[in-house]
Amino acid sequence: MMLLWLYVGSVLGLLAAIGGVVVAGVRRRAFQPFTTLELATAALLICLLHVAVVPWQIGLAKVPGLDALVFSIPYTAIVLLGLRLVPKPGTATLLICGQGLFGQLLGRGINPAWWPYYLWCALAVEILLLAVGSHLRTLAAMLAAGVIRGLLAYSYMYLILAPFLWQQFYAPWYVGLKIVMGMIGCGIGTVLAWRLAPAIEKATRQSSL
Amino acid sequence: MSYTYPDSARPALQGINLAVPDGEWLLLAGPSGGGKSTLLYVLNGLVPHVLGGEVQGDIEVNGLVPANVPVRELSRQVGTVFQNPEAQLFMLRVGEDVAFGCENLRFPPAETQDRVERALTQLSLTSLRNREVFSLSGGQKQRLAIAGALAMGCRTLLLDEPTSDLDDASRAELLSALRDLHRAGHTILMAEHRLEGLEGLVDRVVTIHDGRIAPNGTFPTQGPLPGRRSAGYVADSVPLVDLRDVTVAYPGRPPTLKNLSLCLRAGEVVALLGPNGSGKTTLLKMLCGLLRPSRGQVLIAGKKRPSISDLVGEVGFLFQNPDEQLFADTVIEEIAFGPNNLSRPVEPDRYLERLGLSRYRDDHPRSLSRGERQRLAAATVLAMRPKLILLDEPTTGLDRHAWAVLMEFVVEEAARSGASVVFSTHHAEAAEAFAGRALTLAEGKVVDDRLL
Amino acid sequence: MSLLAVVLGGPLVLGGLFAVTLVPWCLVRPPLARLRLLLVLIGTTVVGTMISQGFFYGFEPRTEILTVLPGLSLCREGVVYGVIVSLRLLSVLAAGALVVFTTHSSDLILALGKLRVPNSFAFMLTLALRFLPETIEQGKRILAAQQLRGAGGRGLLSVFRRFRLLVVPLLAVSLRSARQVALAAEVRAYSSNRVPSRDLRFATADWTVLAGLILLTTLGLTAAAFGHGAAAAAGIQ
Predict the structure, then answer these.
(1) Strand order in the sheet with B241-248
(2) Can you give the residue range of the structural domain that contains C182?
(3) Distance from the B369 Cα atom to the nearest Cα atom in chain A, whole angstroms
(4) FRET partner for C166 with CA separation of 20 to 30 A, picked from A58, B107, B231, B280?
(5) Is residue C77 part of a domain?
(6) pTM listed for this prediction
């Protein structure tokens, strides 16, 4: 029963946080509607998230502890690259929730029970961006975004969601391990994005129609 | 009227004076980059609303001035169809895609259904209404795009090189649909550089060159190609490629290649002809090891049933889209990439000079024009001095001059090193000018194999 | 379904639940390739969960079966619990996947719209669905082009290198497509308040399924109240 309240509490907390962010954003006039180009870019980034993650699912990825690490690397890299390309409040939500829903559409089944998870991850990044300013120019900012997302994603998943939805109780040290691995993976992914960003920006600036 | 794009120094269009009466089918001819597309974009409002820049002069479309009216309003009168059939279809099913424009214009559902029905009938697509968009041919996709525009109520159609990515059958389909629409009274402005077969259909031709309208109004003729027929092959040598009774099938689908047998010798230049879906690309993929046959014997460059990793350095493949093959930061690195990986010697500057790209030596590969990028990609493949060079539709998407230069380069380099070349194309001209042998495929089998 | 899976406990009952979800699957008769994929998925999930729960079970009592390292041991309760958990997981997954499998994606997205997911979001999802196959093909071609130029290789470092080589061109090509799509959408008057031309209504089949689910849920909840609940099975208060 306690778990139920924990889950419900997290959802309520989520709604409150969203409310707060929206109010703060509106007050600072940070929100602008997305242009068609940005929507199209986000859509293709979501495709990319599915495609680029696949080649990594080999060898090491199957070891239960390390899967968090291996998955986070390309995932975080692409999400952060996406944020560099479309530096607006709301992009993280589009990408993270979009990818989650996309995975559900493709075969897992539309399961609203998971939506708070996606929203929390996205929200964490959004709050950071609103505080720092949406342009992730410095490595520190990018690292913060990536790692915080990792921290939140894995903690929430293993501390709240897994126990409630799946009744999976892991030993605390294992949960800790997964969180740390996840964060390390996100960190590596961030560094990857950091290294790739200039190349990508050069590439995009050059292409004409 | 004149216009300059926001990022460039030279005007894209200068001194344009053009009047198009209602119901006319006007052809805009001219080289790539000469301004044809830009002219169309001025008419549909993408310039200046979406692409920026400032337009000078007076323009009027159906009584509206594009610069003052949002693209949404203009799109009710003027429909646009772009070159790439893939990039203008939004929904997953045919019927939904046609309805897309109407839904955006917020018509009530009943009216939308009505308009969709009529548009589908006009373009003979009614039987395809519930098909998935993926399964359509190129020509069908382009007709779908037109249907979407018609459903919105457009009387004027702007087409930007609509047949350039299509094979001959699809192209014929599309042109016939356009002819019907023309007869029904629609005004059509079409920019094209593939001019075969258009002479009897269009009302008028205007050539745009370097941003200006060229003085003559006659139908442009095509000069002869600077072709170079291949010198023939070295007879009695061990075949480079020997395929016997090969069947290739994609998982879960009926076989794409059936009992195919083929023998290629070093030094041959072969053109692969045939409609889309006849198996040309599959054959090319098999020749580079990307696909393995389910039956039959395969010998390529001395290796039996090789996979792609076995053929590195022996076989080179040039894809249709050069952007998929460029990954370095400078042009010169790009060429050296392959040979460096294999520790082979390379003289990148020689290729650059031969292709006229020397001035771009230290530039980023993507800053080149489409034709130049294609040539660069070709150079990267040839720099590895492979024994077999495969090209997938090198003539599609480029204007005649551009692909002629490309093919000339490839064939010349191949002759120099004694390599063989296989290229697929829908341009019979290209086959005539550059190949020594023409293989025609239909439904997975070879139906014709002759020397040219 | 999720509700039931959470509330019920005990391997027998959960097994029963899973069997119930299998019934509609048999009705639908999925193609063989899909079925194989599903079986693989089920197999790995069950085994994986058994192992991870076996090693990392968080509660006492634990009866050790196998000790790998000091402090890391496989325990019987964990393994059993792993089976329970996977059954739970699978019931939810099976039910969810069924919905996705039998309904066309466009309808699913329309349904999302009715649940008041913002329009531009739904549009973006449609675009993503639309471009996924091509993006996959492009990815394959790019990888092939690189391999042919000698950029293959195994080992951890080369995976990184290949990622970079894959992502830069793929992203560049995708961005160009995005640009073209955006232009085409503008020309078709795209705006975020659209009036959808189709509507989704519940048909008789849908009502029956809904009724069935309500019945199932009531049964399940009663069973839980009578001591088959999850808490009881896990032995915690």
Answers:
(1) B257-264, B241-248, B295-300, B303-304
(2) 119-187
(3) 8
(4) B280
(5) yes
(6) 0.79
